[in-house]
Structures are given as structure tokens and as C-alpha cells.
Amino acid sequence: xxxxxxxxxxxxxxxxxxxxxxxxxxxxxxxxxxxxxxxxxxxxxxxxxxxxxxxxxxxxxxxxxxxxxxxxxxxxxxxxxxxxxxxxxxxxxxxxxxxxxxxxxxxxxxxxxxxxxxxxxxxxxxxxxxxxxxxxxxxxxxxxxxxxxxxxxxxxxxxxxxxxxxxxxxxxxxxxxxxxxxxxxxxxxxxxxxxxxxxxxxxxxxxxxxxxxxxxxxxxxxxxxxxxxxxxxxxxxxxxxxxxxxxxxxxxxxxxxxxxxxxxxxxxxxxxxxxxxxxxxxxxxxxxxxxxxxxxxxxxxxxxxxxxxxxxxxxxxxxxxxxxxxxxxxxxxxxxxxxxxxxxxxxxxxxxxxxxxxxxxxxxxxxxxxxxxxxxxxxxxxxxxxxxxxxxxxxxxxxxxxxxxxxxxxxxxxxxxxxxxxxxxxxxxxxxxxxxxxxxxxxxxxxxxxxxxxxxxxxxxxxxxxxx
Length: 468
Hints:
Layout: H1 12-68, H2 71-74, H3 77-87, E1 97-103, E2 107-111, E3 126-132, E4 135-145, E5 151-160, H4 161-197, H5 199-209, H6 229-276, H7 280-312, E6 320-322, H8 324-341, E7 345-351, E8 356-358, H9 360-377, E9 383-390, E10 394-401, H10 422-425, H11 434-444, E11 448-453, E12 459-466
Parallel strand pairs: 7-9
Antiparallel strand pairs: 1-2, 1-5, 3-4, 4-5, 6-8, 9-10, 10-12, 11-12
Helix pairs in contact: 1-4, 6-7, 7-11, 8-9, 9-11
């Protein structure tokens, strides 16, 4: 025995949370990385500008001393270094910055304590990089020349590259620290928003799950999101159609049971008479009535089944191109013996050369019911005329008889189930379902149905089918 595979469903809430949270984290990560790169470039550019500015300040200081001619007379390298150490403020980056002043003719005459005794760079102007004791330095060099264009001195200002990395990492840490604090809060808010947004779906699921089988009233449509409102509207439309279908079924069952109760009672009575009587003539008449009753009930049950199938079917009816004449021929072959018993003449006039889009089985039922009704209500030696003709857009099937007809005020009611006109109900056997079935088939084929007075004095039934 095969086991039914459990249908796997996915969570809309989980999908939204996963998509939003993942997108948020990835977006934040990319944004943080781009910000880190931009901050790093800005910091490096800022430090390069500071190196250049520091070199220009020293250059201005040197030019002032040279202008006063005091550099060679008063300046001592060791005392200058001590003087610089005493007047420099204490900073965590103090040992990370250094400078040198090289005279062309005197060599190194001024440097910071952490500066080496050899030149920071071979480059005389601009930026360069150097490694001293396995430590990387960024160096800016500035060369000075006299009026004759001869070099007089070179200034080197250097900075540990680690300063830039440390400062960049500190800023990045602050950015990431804020993100690590704010990101969980943001994710929690997203979780709350998704849960709140999906509340209408939970409410709708609860209503449907706890709804009783026979409760088909519309769902509440107030305060619904635009995305869910069409679903609820469609469900309400479905409930409305189901309620109408159930109501039709209840009415159909009630009407059918009512209509079948009387002939069944008659059959029971006649069978009891046939069983109890000893008179052969009475028994023969009773059995004859039972036979007629069985035929009538068989016809009624067949009509009931057709009508039930038409009203309960929700599937699209398959249609094909058909000629009404092809359906008329087997119907006449089936009903002609019945007409001959009453000596009724059936005349047919076929002026049609176009086909219609129809279901062959339903078209047969429609043609048979109309002609059968005409034969039943046409008196002995009466006449029935059948015409089929067409124009550019329609094909008309028209049947008229010489029977009693139906008054105009009763023509709207005869398409209702089990309705029979009082003037003919007592004299002619019938179920009152034929024209109701015709009306349903006409509706399925988008045709029109008209009852009127025939030129023969009886009823005229006109069915107009579209050809396109």
C-alpha cells in the first residue's frame, strides 16, 4: 500500500524574515566596507597634507633664521634637540613623528629625537616611503635653493605608517561597534513589522479553519491590506456561489420529492387494487395504469437527472461545430412513431447552411425536448412545423404546433421547474421539466430563447444560436 506523501509548505513569514534580514546584513556590510575604505583614504590624505604642512612650517622657520644670519652662530645640534624635547607636549603619537634638517654644506644640523642620523629619504621633493628597523615610514621632503639655484638645505618630515592604520582601525571599530549595537535592534524591529503585517493572514486562516461546513456567509472585509482584499473577495464570491448552489439543490430535492410522491402513491394504489381484486378486467386496468405510471416516472427521472447535471456542473462544456440538421434527423427518427400514434404531420424546412458551436449531447436533448413537447400538446391530426434558417450572425431553430399554446402571462413561468399550465396539465401527461432543461441548455450556449404564438394557433418556440 502506497503512503501519501506529505505536502511540504513554505513559511511566508520565514521567507520575508530571511530575505529582509539577510538583505539588511549584506547591505550593512557592504556599506560599512565602503565607508571604511573612504575613511581610510581621507585619513591618509589628511596625514599627507599634515606632513607637507609641517615641512612648510620648518621651511619658514629656517628662512627666518637664515635671514637673521643666526643659524650658524647660535644653533647647536645637541642643545637644539634638548630644547625641542623640553618644549614638546606629551602625546601618544609623539614618537611616531620625526623630522630632519640637512644643510648642503654642513650635513645634519637639526632632527627630532626619534629621527635617525642618516637621511630619511633619497628623494629631495615630494612623498616617499622608507622602512627603518622594520618599521614603515611615510616621508615628505622639501628642498630649498638660493637665488643662484643652488641647493642650500633639505627638510624631511616623517611619520610612522602605523599611526594611519591605528587611527583608521579606531574609527572602523567605532563604526562597527555602533552597528553591532543597532543591528540587533533593527532586526528585532523588522521581525515585529513582518509579524504585524501578516496578522490579517493569520486572522483569515483562523476564520476559515473554525468555520462550520454549512456556514457560507461572507468573510469580513474591513481593515484588510490591498494584497489580501482580492483573495477575500474571491472567497466571498465562492461562498455566495456555493450558497446559491446548495439552495438550488435543496429546492430541487424538495420539488422532486413532492412531484414523485403523487405518482408513487398512485402506483401503490393501483398495485394494491391489482393484488386484491379477483376481477380480471379491473386487474388489467390497474396493471395498465401501473405501466403508464412507470413510463411517466421513468421520463420524469430522466428529466430530473438531466436538469440536475446541468445545474450542478461547474466544468466548461466541450463544444464543436455542428449542423442542427444532423441532430434533428435522429430526434425525428426517435419521435416519429409517437407522432404517428396521434396522426400528427411533422413538416421540416431547412434553409440553413451554417454550423454552430455546440455540445452534441446537450443539443440533442434541447431539440428532442422541444419536439417532444410539441407532439404531446398537439391534438390528434395536428400539425408541427420545424424550420431552420440563418442570417450572417445567427442560426435559428423554430418549432410551432397547432396545439392549445400558452397564454402570454404564463410564458415566463413555464421555464420554471415542475410548472405546468393549468389548462393543459390535466389533459396531457408531463413532468414540467422540459422547458426548464431547454432554458438551461440555451444559457450554456449563449443563445436566446423565445416563446410566442404560432401561425398554426399553438405555441411557437424559437432558439437563436450565435455563429461567431
